[in-house]
Amino acid sequence: MNMNEPLKLLVTAEEAARMLSIGRSTFWRNVSAGVFPQPVRIGGLTRWRVADLVRMVDAGAQAMAEQGRAA
Question: Angle of helix 13-20 relative to helix 24-32, nearest 10 degrees?
Answer without folding.
Answer: 100
